[in-house]
Specification:
Layout: E1 23-27, H1 37-46, E2 51-54, H2 59-64, E3 71-76, H3 81-86, H4 88-100, E4 107-113, H5 117-120, H6 128-141, E5 149-151, E6 153-155, E7 159-160, E8 169-170, H7 175-187, E9 192-195, H8 198-203, H9 211-214, E10 225-226, E11 233-234, H10 237-251, E12 259-264, H11 279-294, E13 309-311, E14 360-363, H12 369-380, H13 402-416, E15 430-433, H14 483-491
Parallel strand pairs: 1-2, 1-13, 2-3, 3-4, 4-5, 6-9, 9-12, 12-13
Antiparallel strand pairs: 7-8, 10-11, 14-15
GO molecular function, one term: glucan endo-1,3-beta-D-glucosidase activity
Enzyme class: hydrolase
Subcellular location: Cell membrane
């Protein structure tokens, strides 16, 4: 397997609602070679990542983030929740040590109280809202309540009957917690935090959810999921779950609380039972997610009102237990080398740099040769690709195979169309790669003669040397697999058939 030299460039908007939603990253620390806080912050600054969520309030990390302007969400770990929820003084002490000691140098903008408490720590559920109120009271006393918002992340599994979204409602057994929680968020002008993982919805759907629907890939209108009650069309799982959250809140008569997605992503590697945990799918999902959020596309229920989202997550975490996929949600390896190059064309002016010239469209080796030939004929005909380099005696004639010739034609078309969505498909026989297919004197479009890629203009060689300092993450990231969404889609499976 060849080495991938990969790059990520993210520049996100500010938190102001007037300037649209932002993309942030979660920073997990279950790495055997966890970079030290200074190195983490250097990576954030180099990639122009302006919003991060920590799973705790690590002092060294908060000090390293000081004077960077990076907006930080700190967290009350679940194992500290009971003490804080039972004592105003304990909450005030936590705020003093973990917030007041760092602001304003460190730009702390929100506090996540626990993580997926209702679905993973039910014994703490009765004191969850008390913990949030006590934390808020300490901020109020310090005159920081308008600057720093208090909320708590939920697993999407707390929503029942989530498809169609208009029928969604929270598990009614949690009403004694959810109603006062929503009242708190409303009264403090805070936001509802939810973790959205289309990967798990897709995996558990037994084929009902198309992969394209989970990955934000374009769907023909007759393949879109339609909410029969609102007639709203859904083109991706992410929007459907976000709208289900809005509808679930409105079911309890709360209609003005914004949603923030605290975790979302796609694994880049899996075991034999996770064949869709691939580099290409992870790249596709996160690239499309970033574009979707930063373009302020919004959701069918709230068009034009995008949902700020934190990608899960910054690093691959080799110390995490569970299947192979659990270790491979990161955008970067521990040494700071990106796992893949995000394809971010079309996401506006908020990019530090556009690295899409480092992606290529190639023929799938496993594709049917007749389908490949038909796609090649189309590209060199109606597709108006200049295919003369494929003629005998020309640089790209060898190897004289339909796969090699189709790869050249597909890539030429892909780059001629500015690498727009849907221009590297050819009825499923093409795929996007980060490996330059140029060979010998056959230089592919977009290559510029390179056979490698780079980060910030500097050649990278993966290194086994990285810093030590391990601090295991506090939370289980994904919570319960969201079966309700899947069950709802099964009822409407005819939409996709």
């Amino acid at each position: 397997m060849g080495l991938f030299f990969l790059a990520l460039f993210l520049l996100v908007s500010t938190a102001s609602a007037d300037e649209g939603a932002f993309i942030g990253v979660n920073i997990g620390t279950s790495l055997s070679d966890m970079p030290n806080p200074t190195q983490v912050v250097a990576l954030l600054k180099a990639q122009q990542i302006h919003h991060v969520r920590l799973y705790d309030a690590d002092r060294a990390m908060l000090l390293a983030l000081a004077n960077t302007g990076i907006r930080v969400t700190v967290s009350v770990p679940n194992d500290q929740l009971l003490g804080i929820g039972q004592s105003n003084a304990t909450a005030a002490n936590w705020v003093s040590r973990n917030v007041l000691a760092h602001v304003p140098a460190t730009n702390i903008t929100s506090i996540a109280v626990g993580s997926e408490v209702l679905s993973t720590l039910s014994n703490a559920a009765p004191i969850l809202v008390s913990a949030m109120r006590f934390i808020h009271s300490a901020l109020l006393a310090a005159n920081l309540d308008s600057q720093i918002k208090v909320s708590t992340p939920h697993a999407s599994s707390i929503i029942l009957d989530s498809f169609p979204p208009s029928q969604a409602f929270f598990n009614r057994s949690w009403d004694p917690v959810m109603v006062p929680l929503l009242k708190f968020l409303q009264s403090t002008n805070s936001f509802f935090m939810i973790n959205v993982y289309p990967y798990y919805d897709y995996m558990q759907s037994n084929g009902v959810i198309p992969l394209d629907y989970a990955l934000f890939r374009p769907l023909p209108p007759n393949k879109e999921a339609v909410d029969p009650n609102t007639l709203l069309h859904y083109t991706n799982v992410f929007d459907a779950i976000v709208d289900a959250t809005y509808f679930a809140m409105s079911y309890l008569n709360f209609t003005n609380i914004p949603v923030t997605v605290t975790e979302s992503g796609w694994p880049s590697k899996g075991d034999s039972s996770e064949q869709d945990a691939t580099l290409d799918n992870a790249n596709t999902y996160n690239s499309n997610l970033i574009r979707h959020i930063l373009n302020n596309t919004g959701t069918p229920k709230h068009p034009g009102i995008s949902v700020s989202t934190y990608i899960y997550e910054l690093y691959n975490e080799d110390l995490r237990s569970g299947p192979v996929s659990e270790k491979n949600w990161g955008l970067f390896d521990a040494n700071g080398v990106p796992v893949y190059i995000l394809r971010l064309t079309g996401s506006g002016t908020v990019l530090a740099n556009d690295t899409t010239n480092q992606t290529y469209c190639v023929a799938r080796e496993s594709a049917d040769r007749k389908m490949l030939q038909a796609a090649l004929d189309w590209a060199c005909g109606p597709g108006k690709v200049e295919c003369s380099p494929l003629l005998q005696g020309q640089p790209c004639y060898e190897p004289d195979t339909v796969v090699a010739h189709a790869t050249y034609a597909f890539d030429a078309y892909y780059h001629r169309m500015a690498m727009a969505d849907g221009t590297c498909d050819f009825n499923g026989v093409a795929t996007i790669t980060t490996t330059d297919p140029s060979h010998g004197s056959c230089i592919f479009p977009g290559s510029g003669g390179r056979n490698g890629t780079f980060v910030n203009g500097t050649s990278l060689v993966p290194s086994s040397n990285s810093t030590v300092s391990t601090s295991n993450s506090q939370f289980s990231r994904h919570g319960d697999i969201h079966l309700n969404f899947v069950l709802g889609l099964i009822l409407l499976s005819a939409v996709f058939l």
